[in-house]
């Protein structure tokens, strides 16, 4: 039995201890699949630790990987308590993803988890939840969360990747706040490059999240955009939850309406200034920025507004607001800004991206090439809006890092 088998096995033992319902098996977190349902059926009939055939194991692995990719999308989840008196809810909270218990009668809200990111929960009896949790330095795994008491300690009940994680160095996220657009406090964090030496200077990679009404979080990305991949390549990495991000109140999220370029751009520039003012180890003349979807739109926006960056990555980004379906004050993006494009850019696009089609990358790529500015277009023939297949992820990192 491999790692996944041991993982399921161990979690099941914990579940057996706590008289858990079938619905709360460890694999229920990715229950939408036949492979996982087969595992669950076996749990019901045998009620003993199970072993998986190589086929089943690879199926479970694949489903977990897919589930983890989905986690990156920050799906929220609601669950009723077994007695119906409470609702358990996942919500973004300042770059974290926390489980809240909401008392239905009073509306009182209690946080059950602290820092880091819970991406999905399943019920495990009357007083316990199972949670998929990760943080910047710990990949997603299964934890038990007590539902009684505030911020009860979470207990890790599986550690499926420890042999791999123990062999790599991961930089923690160091939080900071600065005064951004409209005088609001804006949250960001920095990861130091691996092998950090305070007397050296390092280039900086700015990661820009998509959405825009979502957030960069203190979670562990199993697909693209894991900031530690850039830290491993010798970059300091900065992420900023600019106006429009979720987890800072509805007003902050809503504030991006009609301001797709404006507030976030101001936040990113001010955040970078704050980082450069505090950290002499960052070389302010070696800045790059990377983003996907809305983050790709912002990479294009940076190209039209500043020459602060020596290179950009725009993944499935938006370029032409006219041929796209948004109508904001930035409708004339191309006319107003494309004339200024001069930063070398890597464009990445998926053939099956039905949200933003290929011409959104083809157009700015052509523009840069015609001006003799280095530009590269990487086209994934078998990807949609995210490049999620494992082989493509490897290729994606190679393209971005080289
Ligand atoms: C991240 O998770 C690991 C494993 O559970 C834990 O040891 C560590 O304290 C967590 N870090 C943060 C910042 O919460
Ligand atoms: C840190 O960098 C300085 C300057 O390059 C070098 O002299 C020193 O040996 C480095 N320290 C370590 C621990 O690598
Ligand atoms: C929400 O933001 C607007 C500016 O966009 C501000 O005028 C208003 O006072 C804010 N409301 C609250 C409740 O903070
Ligand atoms: C800069 O340093 C100040 C004072 O220590 C701190 O409050 C602030 O969060 C720091 N900002 C950044 C971007 O590191």
From TrEMBL:
Segments spanning the bilayer are 20-39
Keyword terms of this UniProt record: Hydrolase, Membrane, Signal, Transmembrane, Transmembrane helix
Q: Name one Pfam family in it.
A: Peptidase_S9
Keyword Membrane among record annotations: yes
Record domain Peptidase S9 prolyl oligopeptidase catalytic: where = 224-337, 341-401
List, in alphabetical order, the Gene Ontology terms for molecular function in this entry: serine-type endopeptidase activity
Name one process (GO BP) from the record: proteolysis
Name under which the protein is recorded: Dipeptidyl-peptidase V
């Amino acid at each position: 039995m491999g790692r996944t088998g041991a993982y399921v096995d161990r979690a099941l033992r914990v579940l057996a201890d706590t008289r858990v319902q079938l619905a709360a098996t460890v694999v229920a977190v990715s229950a939408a699949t036949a492979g996982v349902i087969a595992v669950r059926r076996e749990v019901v009939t045998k009620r003993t630790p199970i072993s998986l055939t190589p086929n089943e194991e690879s199926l479970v692995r694949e489903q977990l990987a897919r589930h983890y990719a989905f986690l990156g999308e920050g799906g929220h989840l609601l669950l009723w308590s077994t007695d119906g008196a409470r609702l358990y809810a996942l919500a973004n909270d300042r770059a974290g993803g926390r489980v809240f218990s909401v008392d239905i009668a009073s509306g009182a809200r209690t946080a059950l988890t602290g820092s880091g990111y819970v991406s999905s929960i399943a019920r495990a009896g009357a007083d316990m939840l199972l949670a998929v949790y990760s943080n910047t330095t710990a990949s997603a795994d299964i934890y038990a969360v007590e539902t009684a008491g505030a911020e009860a300690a979470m207990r890790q009940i599986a550690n499926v990747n420890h042999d791999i994680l123990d062999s790599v160095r991961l930089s923690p996220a160091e939080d900071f706040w600065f005064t951004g657009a409209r005088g609001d406090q804006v949250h960001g964090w920095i990861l130091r490059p691996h092998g950090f030496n305070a007397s050296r200077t390092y280039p900086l990679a700015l990661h820009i999240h998509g959405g825009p009404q979502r957030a960069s979080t203190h979670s562990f990305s199993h697909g693209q955009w894991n900031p530690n991949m850039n830290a491993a390549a010798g970059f300091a990495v900065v992420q900023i939850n600019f106006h429009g991000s979720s987890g800072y109140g509805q007003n902050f999220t809503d504030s991006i309406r009609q301001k797709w370029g404006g507030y976030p751009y101001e936040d990113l520039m001010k955040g970078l200034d704050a980082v450069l003012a505090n950290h002499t180890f960052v070389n302010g003349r070696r800045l790059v920025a990377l983003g996907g979807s809305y983050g790709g739109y912002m990479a294009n926006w940076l190209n039209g507004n500043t020459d602060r960056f020596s290179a950009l990555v725009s993944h499935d980004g938006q370029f032409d607001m006219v041929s796209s379906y948004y109508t904001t004050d930035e409708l004339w993006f191309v006319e107003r800004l494309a004339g200024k494009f001069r930063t070398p850019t890597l464009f990445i696009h998926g053939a099956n991206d039905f949200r933003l089609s290929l011409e959104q990358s083809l157009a700015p790529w052509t523009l840069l090439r015609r001006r003799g500015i280095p530009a590269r277009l990487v086209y994934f023939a078998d990807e949609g809006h995210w490049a999620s297949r494992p082989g493509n992820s490897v290729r994606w990192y190679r393209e971005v890092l080289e």
